[in-house]
Amino acid sequence: VAVGVVAHPATGAAAFGGVSLYDGPHPEHLLLLLLLLSDTVQGMELTFQMDPHEEFCLYEHAERGQKITISFQVVFGGNLDIDMKFSVGKRVIDTRRTAPHADIRFTAVESGEYSVCFSNQMSMVTHKSVFCDLQVRDADEETPHHVTTQTESSLLALHYNMERVEHLQSEHKAHKTNHLYTAEYMNYRVLVFSLAETTLVVAIGVFQVLYLRSLFTSSSSGK
Q: What is the pLDDT of residues 50-80, one digit of tens each?
């Protein structure tokens, strides 16, 4: 029995007896999916410098039901600590005192402009560098209703995985910078301590030589 196999001219998919084995997405569906993906996530990711007694705030608008994710870390400066306040309007949602890092997840209970403020008021002379990642996502973005085909689902999963990879890379970079600063700071302290110890040993040696010389000079003068 002969069975006709026909290749689709555009996609290369095979068909048996006129029945297509490939049910790919239409181009307009992929375009709509890309547009929706570009609108599901908003936010910012940056590293900023803070002088003593300085306050720095980030603002992002969120609708009710959206998920807000805040990740921050003090990269270098002082004891690697900072004060943080998360609020919407005049209502304070969360505060952190002298925290080196934190991960905060919150579902917006009202629409409005949410703020994340960092304060370096506790430092008198210490300059600090802080990394912060602020993201606002739709609550149902991981299971959107517009995904209809396997290709669209794969594209959506790839989109979320790439975002996760980018976030992990930023965190890794912040950790690397923090560890580099710690190593350089410890190296500086060891160098200063070694120089101070060497100076002290040389000073004691010179003092001992001068003291012994003065004893012999006094004995010679007495005779």
A: 999 999 999 999 998 899 989 898 888 888 8
Residue 7 has which token pair? 């290749």
Q: Are 74 and 175 in contact (CB under 8 A)?
A: no
Give SS3 for 122: coil
Contacts of 17 (CB under 8 A, 6+ apart): 3, 4
Give CA separation, 126 vs 26, 37, 100, in Å: 58, 42, 15
How far apart (Å, rounded) are the C-alpha atoms in residues 75 and 187? 17
Residue 1 has pLDDT above 60, yes or no: no
Side-by-side strand order, sheet with 55-62: 55-62, 112-119, 82-88, 91-99
List, in order, residues 6 or more apart from 98 with CB less than 8 Å away.
79, 81, 82, 83, 122
Question: Is residue 145's pLDDT more than 60?
Answer: no
Q: Which of 104, 53, 73 is nearest to 182 (CA)?
A: 73
Q: What angle do CA 201, 207, 213 make, to 5 degrees?
A: 140
Could you give the count of Cα atoms lying within 13 Å of 201 in the half-sphere of its Cβ?
Answer: 6
pTM flag (> 0.85): no
Residue 38: strand pairing partners: none
Residue 125 in tokens: 């002379």
3-state DSSP assignment of residue 32 = helix
